[in-house]
Structures are given as C-alpha cells and as structure tokens.
Specification:
Elements: H1 14-31, H2 34-52, H3 65-86, H4 88-107, H5 130-134
Helix pairs in contact: 2-3, 2-4, 3-4
Length: 142
C-alpha cells in the first residue's frame, strides 16, 4: 500500500468514493500516534513563532509579540510531554524555543508581559537579597 492517494476510478459513485476516502482516513488514524501530533504541534509553534518574531527573511512585517508569546508558551507547555522521546532533537527544539524567547525579549523591549508582577528592586550593595533576608536562603557560615 502506498502513502500517495490513488486516482479515483471514473466509474465509482460518489458514495463509493466517500467510503473509500473514509476507509483510507480510518487507516491513517489507526497508525497515528498522539506523540507524533504533539511533536508536530511543537514544531508548528516554533515555526510560526519564528515568523511572528520576524526572524525568517521577508517576515519582518509579520512581527506580533502577543502571538510570539503564545507560540512560545504553547511549545513550552507541550515539550515536557514528549521531550524524553525526542533524543537529540529535544535539544534542537529547546534551543529554538530559547531563540524565540530572546527574540520576544528584544521585540517587547524588555518590558514585562501584561499581568506579570514588576521586577523587584535589586538590594543595596552589601545588603542581603529578598531570599536571604526572608530566612529561606541558607548561606554557609551564617
């Protein structure tokens, strides 16, 4: 059996063609694994994110930080589901997501995302930071 759809015979009725198409679709769905769909979705998010970041030549006018952020978050949410099965491809996908995150930070101008809490002020030099002053940070010798 080939993966290429066969030319429909001219003497088949519309119902026969529909039944043949549904049988072929059913066969494809039996062979399809959820992991494959998750990986393909991640790759789609990465590719679309690259366009929304304006990284691909000729896509500079497609820049959209909100869409880029959604693509990044979608890919990051799905990656843990299949990362163990990806082997070396997992590193490449994670690197691509990191590149999108860098592009997002540059596109957004370093501004925090809507709904994000403001970044804490850095402590004065020589003063303990927030984790240490709260007692949650163990510091050797103290």
């Amino acid at each position: 059996m080939t993966d290429q759809p066969q030319q429909p015979p001219q003497d088949m009725s519309e119902d026969e063609l529909r039944a043949a198409y549904e049988a072929q679709l059913e066969q494809q769905l039996r062979q399809l694994r959820v992991e494959d769909v998750v990986v393909q979705t991640i790759v789609t998010f990465v590719n679309l994110g690259g366009r929304r970041a304006g990284l691909a030549p000729g896509t500079e006018d497609e820049r959209d930080p909100a869409q880029l952020r959604m693509a990044i978050e979608g890919a990051r949410a799905l990656l843990p589901l299949v990362e163990a099965d990806l082997g070396p491809d997992g590193t490449a996908i994670r690197d691509a997501i990191s590149q999108l995150q860098i592009a997002y930070a540059q596109l957004a101008g370093g501004a925090p995302a809507a709904g994000s809490p403001p970044a804490p002020e850095p402590p004065e030099p020589g003063q303990p930071g927030p984790a240490q002053s709260s007692g949650r940070l163990w510091v050797p010798g103290q």
